[in-house]
Amino acid sequence: MKIATFNVNGIKTRLPHLLEWLRREQPDVACLQELKSLDEGFPEAAIREAGYGAIWKGQRSWNGVAILARGADPVEVRRELPGDPGDDHSRYLEAAVDGIVVACLYLPNGNPQPGPKFDYKLAWFERLLRHAATLVDCGHPVVMAGDYNVVPTDFDIYNPKSWRKDALLQPETRACYERLLAQGWTDSLRHLHPEEAVYTFWDYFRQHWEHNSGLRIDHLLLNPQLAPALKAAGVDRWVRGLEKASDHAPTWIDLDLKKLPKAARARRST
């Protein structure tokens, strides 16, 4: 099973890119972020014609998340991150696909910092930590995929010096990510490529794409029930090279579900 995450940076603008990527790479599950569209503007017909069922939660002009499943309809579990009923940002979706719990998230950027946006980022991260703790040992195989807006270490960015004041690199941000991994989650891309400079995001300034001046901020975390199935992980860089592309490239993992622990395999069938 191939599971991917892709911050599309506007699904209306990038729909041709999304459809080409789905046709060429055929992920079994795709988690999308930054739809930047209301629910009624989601291109359900085009995505179904491409062979995918979908659930989504949109928002005008920014945010928005979706989960696509090839040849199936994701079974929705929840449409929001628990812990703050007043939070109206569309940043979290959770569904079951083929017996796997898939969480799609778009963690707040947090800039400028310090300030209310950074405070919101950390508060949202605390909510994620509490909810993730219920998922990591739930007995089901779980993947939490999305744009985390976290550069975990200096190795995950082309040049940390010019980004030191950015919310993505702040010690508080990185500490939250470390606490998340400490619950028992596996950072799939880094786990399989511990010594490789792998990037998933290149901003639009100063020819960062052309110079491969990137950041790794899109992550797929696996709980202990799913981690044994991990066999490959990578980034579909060719998508970032398309004309008028998103500033993110799709990031993916390949799973051998036959290697799931016996109890997790049994859970998938219930």
UniProtKB/TrEMBL annotation:
<dbReference type="GO" id="GO:0008311">
    <property type="term" value="F:double-stranded DNA 3'-5' DNA exonuclease activity"/>
</dbReference>
<dbReference type="InterPro" id="IPR036691">
    <property type="entry name" value="Endo/exonu/phosph_ase_sf"/>
</dbReference>
<dbReference type="InterPro" id="IPR037493">
    <property type="entry name" value="ExoIII-like"/>
</dbReference>
<keyword id="KW-0460">Magnesium</keyword>
<dbReference type="Pfam" id="PF03372">
    <property type="entry name" value="Exo_endo_phos"/>
</dbReference>
<feature type="domain" description="Endonuclease/exonuclease/phosphatase">
    <location>
        <begin position="4"/>
        <end position="248"/>
    </location>
</feature>
<dbReference type="InterPro" id="IPR005135">
    <property type="entry name" value="Endo/exonuclease/phosphatase"/>
</dbReference>
<protein>
    <submittedName>
        <fullName>Exodeoxyribonuclease III</fullName>
        <ecNumber>3.1.11.2</ecNumber>
    </submittedName>
</protein>
<keyword id="KW-0378">Hydrolase</keyword>
<dbReference type="InterPro" id="IPR004808">
    <property type="entry name" value="AP_endonuc_1"/>
</dbReference>
<comment type="similarity">
    <text>Belongs to the DNA repair enzymes AP/ExoA family.</text>
</comment>
<keyword id="KW-0479">Metal-binding</keyword>
